[in-house]
Amino acid sequence: MAQILQFFILSSYFIYATSNNIPESYIIYMGSTSNELDGNSKSTDEAHLQMLSSIIPSEEKGRVSIIHSYSHAFKGFSAMLTEKEANTLSGHDGVVRVFPDNILQLHTTRSWDFLEAESGLGSGRTHRKASNDVIIGIIDTGIWPESKSFDDTGMSAIPSRWKGICMEGSDFKKSDCNRKLIGARYYKNLADSVHTSSLGSPRDSVGHGTHTSSTAAGSIVANASYYGLAQGMAKGGSPSSRLAMYKACSMGGCSSSAVLKAIDDAVNDGVDIISISIGMSSIFQSDFLSDPIAIGAFHANERGVLVICSGGNDGPDPYTVVNAAPWILTVGASSIDRTFQSSIVLGNGKILKGVAINFSNLTHSQFYPLIFGRDGAAASTPVSEASNCYPGSLDLEKTTGKIVVCVDTDPSVSRRIKKMVAEGSQAKGLILVDESERGVPFDSGSFPFSEVGNSAGAQILDYLNSTSKPTAIILATEDLKEYKPAPVVAYFSARGPGGLTEGILKPDIMAPGVGILAAAMPVADPGTDLPAGKKISNFAIKSGTSMACPHVAGAAAFIRSAHPRWSPSMIRSALMTTATATNNLGKPITTNSGGNANYHDMGSGEMSPLRALSPGLVFETTTQDYLQFLCYYGYKDQVIRKLLGTNFSCSGKASANLISNINYPSISVARLGGNRGAQTTVSRTVINVGPSNSTYTATVDAPAGFLVSVLPNKLVFAKRGVKASYKVKFDVRNANKGYGFGSVNWSDGAHLVRTVFAVNVA
């Protein structure tokens, strides 16, 4: 045993040692271009090549080449380097960071009607004020330009400020762009080495980018549906806005260097908003200056471009939210008031309401034998594996022609695999008992499938044990509207607090991300089973924070069209402080488990675009605020100077405690009590964007044991555009340990400005 262990240790060391000498793609980040005129790209590339030549051995001069060059919003390039060369280059003057070019992952109709209805401000108002001068850049898997969602009928000429291009490819022409889809680019992507079908064109080869683009700004399409489900009018959040696609992803993911290049180009092209449904794993988060999305978003924000990102799908555990830099608008996912119900009828007449998308041909006329997975176990198979529908765990002789019941006590086997296992065992259908995932519909095509929670699952198992010949049927899916309660926080939606800092409350906001109908590729979408005898649908139903992110991008474009002079942080503030924390029953929003959601689950709450048009007061977070954040976080002066290219100096010592004072539209105190004492005060500054001669009075919603005071508790504004500051004091001497959640609410009688807070009592 010792010899085997020694062999593995030596092998690991050998692999590590040799891997250090294998060239891999690295990103060399060199800070801002804000203090420079647009330089000569040719001379910039020559300087970068000279830098590479100084560290790469002469006998390997073939490696002296640039993969991507960044020169618009920020400086830098990507290249093939060994680990030793990367370390050497990191000490070069003018280099902020050198880090590996990792692969980032994709975070994968009625939703807009639901948001409008929830605002309580009447129907049909969402698109009346919108202009078509707002440009949304989507960084994703490409786009299918022929979709009706990208029709430009009735749109005016492309804004003259637009500097972007429509890149041609093997299956994409310049004529595929129009007055709706005004730009399209594609990039060399490390992930394409595995999935080469996506090379050489802005055309979507996955379906993700087409879906997110149409969600954000798709044109109005009547009679849209997914094989009759979710039927109605499909539209984006801002159907009058323009779209520009930046294809940096494929089925294999998105290389960091391509995403950075896409952000750099998008800012230079003239987009107003960037939507990114991509992110790192919550387990392996990089610090803010080694995270390509955080770097790109920082410089985009410098140029007045709002960057909106999905928070990730690693929920419901805490500390799973990603894309959590304070200059990013981070989005969680919620359900809407529509569900896809697939009823299960038991042989005793009981009907249970499951959730799924299935186009089953089963009817009430014929029932089928019902069997629990463990009772259909193959020889020598552990009962737990058969109960969970593990591959190879079921015996055909026991399951053929029967409806199988499986559980999800081991989530390592996905629903798709369980369904394939049931199909492979020649079962007539599958009932899955899964409390967490039951709220997110799984598409099983024509195979009869339905998912229920623990309560319904217990009733099914009781019935199985009550008779010697249990039977059941699974009916085809029905589309149920005005479902209650809604919204509900999606189980998969990543949760706060942020893993890198708890001084900023993340996610920022929540938007529809469950069962969203939007445009699809008219080719087979990987992983989707088509209903028998049906052509490929022009629309698809998808779930994920990927779907929530473009909802917020569309809403932000809507606000930008009404307030073109607002900064990115003002738009974010308007969305956050007007978000709602109640559902369509008038009760607090809940999580998928039924408990009340807190602000780490849902951010400030469910966005309300109509309310955000007139927020009353806004919090403007400036570049100076973000620089102070970097100081408080612990970055050294010289690093921040390289970042900016200026003589910036931090004021005071680095202290994570001071992060709570950044002028943010929410408040988070990472630790209060213990050695710090049980009291702290944070400050905020607001701008009046409402009427002149307004007086706002503060009220506080605080948890038990919290004493929260606001000074002053009254703000008077003589005219629009005036600023006012206030302080919020927290006293938690009598509070329970752990996080407490509440809000500071300012009202002038017409507006309600809600600033949510999370305070961790030590």
From TrEMBL:
Residues 661-759 form the Subtilisin-like protease fibronectin type-III domain. GO terms for molecular function: serine-type endopeptidase activity. Belongs to the peptidase S8 family. It comes from Asparagus officinalis (Garden asparagus). The keyword Signal applies. One of its GO terms (biological process) is proteolysis. Residues 1-19 form the signal peptide. The keyword Transcription regulation does not apply. This is Uncharacterized protein. Keywords: Hydrolase, Protease, Serine protease, Signal. The active site is at D140 (charge relay system), H208 (charge relay system), S546 (charge relay system). CDD domains: PA_subtilisin_like, Peptidases_S8_3. Residues 25-107 form the Inhibitor I9 domain. Residues 132-587 form the Peptidase S8/S53 domain.
